[in-house]
Amino acid sequence: MNTKYKLTYTVKKPLNREPKLHDLVSSFITQHEQAYDRNHGPIPHLCASNHRVGVYGLVQNELSLSIPDLTAFPQHTVICALQCAGNRRHTMRTKLKEVHGIDWFDGAVMNCAWTGPLLCDVLAAAGIKVDEKTDAHVAFSCFQTPCQDDEWYGASIPLSRALDPEASILLALKMNGEDLPPNHGAPVRVVTPGIAGARSVKWLDRITVQTQESNNYYQRHDYKILPPEASTKEEAEQWWDRCDALQDMPVNSVIGIPSPNASVQLDENEMVEVKGYALPSGGDGPIVRVEVSGDEGKTWTDAQILRDESVKEKYKGCVELKWAWALWRTKVKVEKGKGRKIWSRATDRSGNTQKAPMEVAWNFRGVAYNGYGEVDELEIV
Ligand SMILES: Nc1nc2c(c(=O)[nH]1)N[C@H]1C(S)=C(S)[C@@H](COP(=O)(O)O)O[C@H]1N2
Ligand SMILES: [Mo]
């Protein structure tokens, strides 16, 4: 363990928190104060002036890159949603069956503008020794602190994805135009658009091109969709090696306004205003449609997908919204009374759409839940 730098929080009690949904859906770009935190260990406060990222493994030239070295590569800005695989776990737990993991509600996601070199450019500088067709992987490691289940934090993605410039995978130095804050990975983190947040390794120390996936606990023993028969920790043991690591996240949407249990006054047209976010599946963005139902799916109304023009102005040259979330709003009819529900259903460019909650398969870790967005226990007056 590196004890040269300040650490905050502990292995036993890492920082894990999510913002209020009402606030989260109020801004297209998530400010870092509003962004969820997910840590498997303490937060290291590293010094940008002596930090280095090593590039090792199946490469022609091993590299040791300082932050100025990373800044010397062409810099790209990508607006993307970064989401914990366990986002919405609470809904899976309450609608389907008990699951194992942090009780995330719908706020373990942020939509930020990330800036830094493309991973593929850094790999090109090192020179890859295997051809694109070989089943190889790019592993990311952080050795700064021990974690709850391993001595270090690591993840990997397929080499083919890492080499694809269209995949927009970054070694991010900036978040929303400013240096990364320590809790989000300063001075450099990986950002893997469309892929589960677990692969976006913070406080990046090393990139390794290898023939195996990362052997870190969080790649091999967590962040997988196990089949429903793996229903206890003991049963899960037989499945970890047989299931693929979760990479692309599924299409999703969530209702942020109104809040559950709220008492909502109908407007002059007897309608309720509804707002939320929607996320495309993996690389299949952007979101093309969001529908909302105030009568448990009998009728659906198309929501308006909101476009934030100021973002185009601020992040010129980065108007591609394929990886971003979509914020949306609409008004729906809901009958007066108690115990009312509103649902949302998103569809992305490739036609992937959400299923009704009861059609979603349960999994032991409660990852990648994407049943309809739902707000319930409303009192409509
Ligand atoms: N080094 C390191 N990187 C990490 C993690 C971690 O615990 N340690 N958590 C991962 C997980 S599970 C998620 S969802 C995202 C969360 O990023 P955030 O804390 O910036 O929200 O970081 C990923 N990168
Ligand atoms: Mo996560």
Automatic annotation (TrEMBL):
One MF annotation (Gene Ontology) recorded for this entry: molybdopterin cofactor binding
Cofactor dependency: Mo-molybdopterin
The protein, known as: Molybdopterin binding oxidoreductase
UniProt record, GO biological process: sulfur compound metabolic process
Residue ranges annotated for the Moybdenum cofactor oxidoreductase dimerisation domain, each copy included: 245-372
CC annotations in GO: mitochondrion
Organism: Massarina eburnea CBS 473.64
Keywords: Metal-binding, Molybdenum, Oxidoreductase
Record-annotated Oxidoreductase molybdopterin-binding domain positions: 40-218
